[in-house]
Every structure is written in structure tokens, then in C-alpha cells.
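sry for the spam today, last one i promise. C-alpha cells for design, 223 residues
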């Protein structure tokens, strides 16, 4: 079981990205304060918390704009130090977290975090099995739209069968076409079933699913 970090966690606030547990996202880090943050995190517990900036962040971006207190604890999976002293990262979501009092302000913010648990469910519950099938179908449609052909390869369908339901739901939340605050609302749901249903509803209503950002076109590039 995942334990809460022992020390305050560096906060990486972004204007248009919400990370979900059990998903991965590429990031570019080029501001000096956040390059410092990456170096400090790598020499510590190798985690950071991604948070969504509140509306109006543009007015105080160079200072300390407010962010939502719900975020996602993330672990470094890949770190590339670039010739210009910037970083190319891939991070993976570990757990939803509540961001507490900020304990450090300069050059980047850090805070204590509290892990948030999901409501328990059983993978073999008939209701979960039904919802799982619906989520898998949505993800397979995404694969088709992303260029896998009219019929996604059977091996992809087989691979999805091995993935826990919560992971599937959070992947769908990541790739659906929705605004950041809308996705933050999905992250706030304690029930994985409720989150999955809402994500499928959003995907169906908009009739399209967008691929995750490519490494050269990351959300939050201002950081």
C-alpha cells in the first residue's frame, strides 16, 4: 500500500492539466524555479504533486498564483536533462491527494499532502464488469480514432482485459475531450464507478476522444 510522503512535497501547478492515478504524462520543465524543483525532488523522495491553477492565474503567474487543493501525487518515470539545462519528464500518477498548508514558497512551493482513498469495489462485481466493458469499448474507439484502423488489434483488447478497472477509468478520463476543471471534477469523485460513468457520458456527448499530448506539445509548457 502506498504511504504518504514523509516530507512536504514540491507542487507543480499547471494551467491546463489534471493528472489521474495510474496514468502517465510527458512534461517539459524550463522555468528556473521548476528546474530547481526537479533537481530537489530527484535528490529526495522522487515525487511531486501536480495541481491545477485556479482561474485568473495569468495575472500573477510570475509570483504565486492560487491552485486547487485537490491534486495528484506523481512519481518520476523518465528524466532527460536537455543541453539547454531544461528537463523532459515522464511522470506517473500515484494517488489523489489533498494539498495542505504550503510550507515553502521560494523558489517553488511545497506542501504536506494527504492521500485520498477511493471507495472500495470488487473487480468481479457484475455491475463493475458491465461498466468495465463499456469503458473498454470507449478506449478501443479511441485507439481506432488514433490510427489503429477500423478494428483495433485483438492484442490491444486482450491487454485491456488485464488492466484493473480503476486504471481503465482514469485512462479514459485522461484522453476524453474536456476542460481541465471538468477533469478536476472527475478526479474529485471518490467512486470509481461514478467517475467511469461520467467519463463515458462526456465521451459520448462530445463524440470524440483526443490523444494525450505528445512530448513536444505538453500542456503547461509555460512551466
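last one done:
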Amino acid at each position: 500500500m502506498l504511504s504518504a510522503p514523509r516530507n512536504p512535497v514540491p507542487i507543480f501547478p499547471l494551467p491546463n492539466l489534471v493528472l489521474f492515478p495510474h496514468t502517465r504524462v510527458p512534461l517539459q520543465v524550463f522555468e528556473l524555479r521548476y528546474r530547481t524543483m526537479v533537481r530537489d525532488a530527484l535528490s529526495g523522495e522522487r515525487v511531486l504533486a501536480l495541481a491545477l491553477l485556479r482561474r485568473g492565474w495569468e495575472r500573477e503567474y510570475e509570483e504565486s498564483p492560487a491552485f486547487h487543493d485537490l491534486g495528484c501525487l506523481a512519481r518520476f518515470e523518465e528524466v532527460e536533462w536537455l543541453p539547454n539545462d531544461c528537463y523532459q519528464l515522464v511522470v506517473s500518477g500515484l494517488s489523489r491527494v489533498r494539498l495542505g498548508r504550503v510550507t515553502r514558497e521560494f523558489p517553488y512551493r511545497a506542501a504536506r499532502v494527504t492521500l485520498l482513498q477511493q471507495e472500495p469495489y470488487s473487480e468481479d462485481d457484475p455491475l463493475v464488469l458491465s461498466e468495465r466493458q463499456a469503458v473498454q469499448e470507449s478506449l478501443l474507439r479511441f485507439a481506432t480514432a488514433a490510427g489503429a484502423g477500423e478494428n483495433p488489434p485483438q492484442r490491444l483488447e486482450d491487454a485491456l482485459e488485464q488492466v484493473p478497472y480503476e486504471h481503465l477509468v482514469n485512462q479514459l478520463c485522461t484522453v476524453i475531450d474536456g476542460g481541465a476543471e471538468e477533469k478536476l471534477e472527475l478526479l474529485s469523485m471518490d467512486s470509481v464507478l461514478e467517475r467511469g460513468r461520467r467519463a463515458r457520458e462526456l465521451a459520448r456527448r462530445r463524440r470524440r476522444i483526443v490523444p494525450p499530448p505528445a512530448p513536444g506539445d505538453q500542456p503547461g509548457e509555460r512551466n
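The helical segments are 32-42, 126-148, 154-161, 165-175, 180-187, 192-206. ok im logging off now
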